[in-house]
Amino acid sequence: MDLELNTEQQMLDDAVTALFRDHAGQRRTAELTNAIDAALITRLADGGFLDVGYDAGPMEAIIVAERAAQFVACAPLVARVLVAPLAGVRDLPNTVGLVASPTSLVRYAGLCDAYLVLDGDMARLASSDDVSVEPVRSRSAYPTGRVHVRRSESLGVGSGDALRRAWQVGIAAEVGATAEAAVTFTAQHVSDRHQFGRPIGSFQAVQHRLAKSYANSQATKWMARRGAWYHHDAFLTATAATFAAMTARDAYDDCHQVSGAIGITSEFGLTAWTMRLMALHTELGGRRAHARHAAQSRRAAG
Amino acid sequence: MELGWTADEAAFRAALRASVSTHLRPGWTLDDRDMPEQADIDAVKAFCAALGDDGFLTPHWPAAYGGRDASPWEQLIISEETWSVGEPRGGQYMNTNWIGPALMRYGTDEQRALHLPLISAGQVNWCQGFSEPDAGSDLAALRTQAIRDGDSYVVNGTKVWTSYAHAAEYCFLLVRTDLDSPKREGITILLVPMSSPGVEVREIPNPYATHLIHEMHFTDVIVPITCRLGDENRGWDIVRNSLANERVGIARHQHTEYVIDQTVRDAQGLGIDVADPGIEETLGIAYAWAEASRALNYVAVSERITDPNGSRPAASVSRAITGPMERMAGWACHEVLGDQALAGGTEADRQVVTGTSSMIAAGAYEVQLDLVARLCLNLPRGR
Questions:
Q1: Which residues 260-289 on chain B approach chain A with CB closer than 8 angstroms?
Q2: Closest CA relative to residue B332, chosen from B250, B247, B266, B271
Q3: What's this model's pTM, rounded to 2 decimal places?
Q4: What interface predicted TM-score (ipTM) does this complex get?
């Protein structure tokens, strides 16, 4: 086992970090309302970053997915870069939405070129021409809506389970990096903000909340990485998503609580991550559904 | 990143598992790890000796000391395989993980010649004399004194919460040898034979387990200076390094998953519907915590390989998850089994002990959070 990035992975991480730093981030996301960052997608496609999951492997895909989440990229990148390759779905357009059911809220609904749809034990692929989208107003950080599929292509026996496992990994990867970014951002704020004559981050009550959330974010990141590596193992992908849902909720609570009132303003910046955590917390059924999948897969394995 | 086990690591695990299965005393449980009876003390030594004969007790030690320089990953695999069956090494995991390595690094030739063969043969139990009545989480506040008298020290003081003291032949003892210097600078380590006159061990009664914790009284105990590990007053550096090793690679996640699995079997035996949505949710969350602990434990092992002399932030991050994981598992198992969990002898019942102690022992949970806040988030120190 080797948990360190190899030379190629480090180069990939450096390159994609620089790209997101220059072309994504809170300010860029705030400029885009109900839109996908098409310019960013083009840069990623031109650089070959959208296809690293196919060309290099799951660890490379998760590197890109984590950085996309950290820099709040305004595009469904995790679905395209990580989830689709893990689910074994190839030859996709650049933007892909994930649909859990006809009633579930879909991130970037109406803005994607295609949709991967969970349909019981089956996964299906629908083009944007073959769906109708019902926009849903939400305070979540994403454009959302319900996607009604008129026509779709079956991806074969077992494809539903494969998509679910891959999606669980995607949720964990996105939550891990998003929560880490939110906690790190908040740690800087409480170090700078003085009350009672001292930084509020010097109070143990504040430190412990952030330390706990930081530990949760690290666990989630590494569970996602393990889930990506062992993406055929339903127990590992489900436990990763279960823990991610708990991490999302706790990081949301802890970061807002210690930031105080400034934390809920758009100007401050924390909500760029926390409103995403709120959406990720419930995606694909949330903690309860993931946990049940974990218990069922463990029991099935004997 | 290569997150899978190599073929060699997988083969090592398979061979180790066969060895453990061959030598494990039938019916061994985690309760036996505390060695409440003499038969358990004997069983630990017999198991460790057999494991040593098979090459699985100290493979991570240097070849010069009977090992084969196996990687920390193999050391972790040993921990996973032994914890999954109730840690039949008893307290000897301490010997092989950090007491032995500390002796190699800081010990004299005579100390190495005496102690290392005993440890690698599985023929000795140690305990660690760290905490005191007024020095728990603030370990450096310890007050047990060792006054130099010619070629010996005279030791007086009390240590508490000590595991395995009743079964130990030696104590890795922290003492204060300089009362005037700053508290971390006046500490020395002594390797004390527990048979020394003036050493008294008393079990501390508790409702959890027999011989779980002890107090040790040292009254005018004469300890030759040849039993000092490292330089006088320089013990804190050794302890810091040793504690970092202590915090890494103990595969509690493996045991916790075993406990949850066994609780599912116990529930099925009692006619409880383990497919009930609420029960599945409870179990799934407990499993998720165990896998979180596993993931971070692996990161801590990796950190030990890549930055052995650093401040080891990943070790503290890992501990910040492992403690709650143990406690969550205990409550989850109780919720699944209901009042049947209180019937003695179930894994759910034993998990109460583990869950309670894991957030207290070897550096309290809150201390780990302090370290995470400082080392990972660079938060300002309090007053």
A1: 261, 264, 274-275, 277, 279-285, 287-289
A2: B266
A3: 0.95
A4: 0.97
